[in-house]
Design a protein that fits this description.
By secondary structure, the chain is α+β, with helices and mostly antiparallel strands. The protein is built from two helices and seven strands.
């Protein structure tokens, strides 16, 4: 069987950028998805879903890198370089895991986002980090 990848982007100026990835289908919900909120004062990185530990067919396979690269290209063509980025670094699916498993996955998530030029700051919530940086500091990657 021949494999097929479909990548879709929804861009609504001053509202949102949504990047969706379908694998071997073009119907139904996307397998991997990233939503970004576009606001006058900042860009909010929303949930990146479908690529975590609970989706082994997409975890560590480069699909999330493709989705984030696409979102960064859209951001850089539509937002000023000085526009701040914000968001929360978390994975709600991890809440059901044992503490040692969560502690193992958290550094992987930080490493993933830092490769794109995203920084981190302490959150008011325990065990959470905020995403920080600027659109201009974001960078795309060549490989997964």
């Amino acid at each position: 069987m021949r494999e097929r990848l479909l990548l879709g982007i929804v861009f609504v100026p001053e509202q949102k950028i949504e990047v969706d990835l379908w694998w071997n289908t073009s119907t139904g919900p996307p397998e991997v998805k990233l939503c970004l909120g576009l606001y006058p004062h900042a860009v909010e990185f929303g949930e990146l879903s479908g690529n975590g530990f609970d989706h082994p067919q997409f975890h560590h396979r480069g699909f999330a890198t493709l989705v984030v690269n696409t979102a960064i290209q859209a951001l850089k063509s539509s937002c000023a370089p000085a526009t701040p980025i914000e968001g929360v670094l978390s994975n709600l699916a991890e809440q059901r895991l044992a503490r040692e498993q969560r502690d193992r996955l958290a550094p992987e998530r930080r490493a993933f986002w830092s490769r794109f030029g995203v920084g981190f700051s302490l959150s008011e919530a325990p065990q959470e980090l905020n995403l920080c940086g600027t659109v201009g500091a974001l960078q795309t990657l060549r490989g997964g």
